[in-house]
Amino acid sequence: MTVHTQPVAEAPDPRSFGLPVVEDGSIPAELRSLVSRVHDLIDVVANTGADRETLAEAAAVVEDLTGRLDVDRRQIGTMVERTMSDGTTEYGTITNIVSGDTSPVAPPLFLERVPGGLRGEVTLNTIYQGPPGLAHGGWVAALLDQAVGSASAVETSPGLTAKLEVNYRRPTPLFTPLEVIGRVDRTEGRKVFVSGEIRAHGEVTAEATALMIRVQIPE
Length: 219
Ligand SMILES: CCCCCCCCCCCCCC(=O)SCCNC(=O)CCNC(=O)[C@H](O)C(C)(C)COP(=O)(O)OP(=O)(O)OC[C@H]1O[C@@H](n2cnc3c(N)ncnc32)[C@H](O)[C@@H]1OP(=O)(O)O
Prior knowledge:
Layout: E1 21-23, H1 29-47, H2 52-69, E2 79-83, E3 89-93, E4 111-114, E5 117-122, H3 137-155, E6 159-168, E7 178-188, E8 191-200, E9 203-214
Parallel strand pairs: 1-2
Antiparallel strand pairs: 2-3, 4-5, 5-7, 6-9, 7-8, 8-9
The structure holds tetradecanoyl-COA.
């Protein structure tokens, strides 16, 4: 068995997989603003007590907007290139449901490099509600999957999750800053063993171990 503690490969350029890449700085501020407002809209719509006339008007306005915006769709698999605070270049899928720049559903989770992995902070609203006032377990798993998958990508090279085990230690609250951590524990060829956790008020609410399989880079 070979155990690597150092990066085992250069991060591949997604263009070599035939994927389009946009720089995060080239995403228009107006689009970022729209994404943020639609995120708020989803939360409001899920909880509104507005009267029927207002609801009908809102549905018509949203239908009209949807039609106007449904032009020039990006190619599926479009990636965003960003430079992390330590200078590392990172790639992420632009509509990634957890951290995509243009996904209105994403919390979003932005992760920064720390020794051995990545760390981020996120606060969840009712979009992510499962039990009353608490995060849905599937979303807790999604946050952890993203954190450990991204940690694996920046510490070694990108891969897919082969196995993810989550221990739910405490309920994960909504409207509370959450610390999300992912790290690489060891690598063995294409296998990357990773772990992570979510903390609320410093207490671990969920922890995960996972196995990532690094994708093979085209020659
Ligand atoms: C450039 C692009 C940038 C992208 C940026 C991404 C950012 C990341 C953020 C994303 C975050 C979100 C992340 C997501 O959402 S990833 C999306 C969710 N995951 C998937 O859809 C993955 C589906 N599964 C597969 O595609 C294949 O099974 C994979 C690719 C995983 C392996 O199929 P592949 O044909 O390639 O490999 P192999 O079969 O030769 O196996 C190789 C080795 O691995 C061992 N093994 C395999 N499976 C398991 C298992 N379950 N338990 C234990 N061991 C397992 C196997 O025994 C062998 O070991 P060894 O015999 O060598 O010792």
